[in-house]
Amino acid sequence: MDVLSMGETMVLFSPRSTGQMRYETEFHAKIAGAETNTLIGLQKLGHQTSWISRVGADELGHKIIHAVRGEGVDTTHVTYDKEHATGLFFKEKTMEDVTTVSYYRQNSAASTLNETAIETVDVESFTYVYLTGITPVLSRSCEKAVQQLVGKAKLAGVPLVFDPNIRRTLIKGEAGKQLLKELIGAASLVLPGKEEGAFLFGTPDEKEIANHCLELGAKTAIVKLGADGAYYKGEKTSGYVNAFPVSRVIDPVGAGDGFAAGLLSGLLDKRSLQEAVQRGCAVGAMVTQVNGDIEGLPTRAQLEAFMQSKRTDVL
Ligand code: ATP
């Protein structure tokens, strides 16, 4: 197996039309979860992944499992919870350019994940463990589950790849920040964005953010720069990778998760760090051109064609 991850996936309901949701009668229903976005991205590129989670023993839980398993992700370590419901949220477009998000995730099935979720997982059979900063701040029991998984990975010598993926509404004060910094310190690779760096370290400068991550103990930091690509810094190498230019951004959400999928794919294929970051940038750019978090994640053939077509722009 290539990559193991753990986290919450919810069902996202979006009203079909613009206006107050109270008048809406028709909704799109899609699954949404940072970790599963990345795992699905990896599956589409031909890698083998597994997901640890919990969903409600309800129709939305089944919907999530159908979708994630349907993409080929192993769901052996996902359990059904009879007492807690699957989390869900709404994205309401009150006016053409105003979007309001309402979460119904408190006490969700996934927020009750705890250390027992890790017990039966053979962590050492994976090449990488991938985590985001969302899971540990969902609840105290999720925090413990994350620590347990990180500890098991360390013992097994499996590198941790960590995307801080900060959700400010879930982070509780300094203790929450400290927790994320500890995970950065435990990671082989950290993937912050500029805003996340500013939140954690008080600076939006990519070089300073990377230095802070390395000082905490991370081996390599890759700072995502949106339309400006990415900056990477390891113990011996550092540099910038240009973004792959896109004519028009349709939906930027999920670019970071796609970036993680491309990067991990490159590393699994034993490419250099720079080449892996390029692959991350390519997948991120492709995701911005399609509505939805997973719909734009490319197959390997699509990715190769895209990178080839933009070749002169990246070299
Ligand atoms: P999100 O949390 O919204 O998914 P993020 O902040 O984690 O995203 P971004 O920096 O927005 O990450 O995007 C990840 C990568 O995707 C970037 O490093 C870049 O390579 C690519 N990307 C994002 N936006 C664009 C864009 N407008 N044009 C080209 N490439 C882009």
Question: How would you briefly describe this protein structure?
Answer:
By secondary structure, the chain is of the alpha/beta class. The protein has 11 helices and 13 strands. Helix 1 crosses helix 8.
Q: What low-confidence regions span 5 or more consecutive residues with pLDDT below 50?
A: none
In sequence order, what are the helices and strands, one letter per element?
EEEHEHEEEHEHEHEHHEEEHHHH
Mean pLDDT: 95
Taking strands numbered 1, 2, ... along the chain, how are they ordered across the largest sheet? 5-4-1-8-9-10-11-12-13
What is the CATH C level class, in words? Alpha Beta
Span between termini? 32 Å
Ligands in the structure? adenosine-5'-triphosphate
The CATH superfamily title: Ribokinase
Percentage of residues in strands: 15-25%
Say what the CATH topology is: UDP-N-acetylmuramoyl-L-alanine:D-glutamate ligase
Number of DSSP E strands? 13
- The domain count comes to 1
Shape: globular
* Architecture per CATH nomenclature, i.e. the level-2 architecture: 3-Layer(aba) Sandwich
Fold and architecture overview:
- This protein has 315 residues and is of the alpha/beta class.
- The protein has one domain: UDP-N-acetylmuramoyl-L-alanine:D-glutamate ligase (3-Layer(aba) Sandwich), CATH 3.40.1190.
- Helices cover 38% and strands 21% of the residues.
- The protein is built from eleven helices and 13 strands.
- The strands form two sheets. It has a nine-stranded mixed beta sheet, sandwiched between helices.
- The mean pLDDT is 95.
- The site of adenosine-5'-triphosphate has 22 residues, from helix 8 and helix 9.
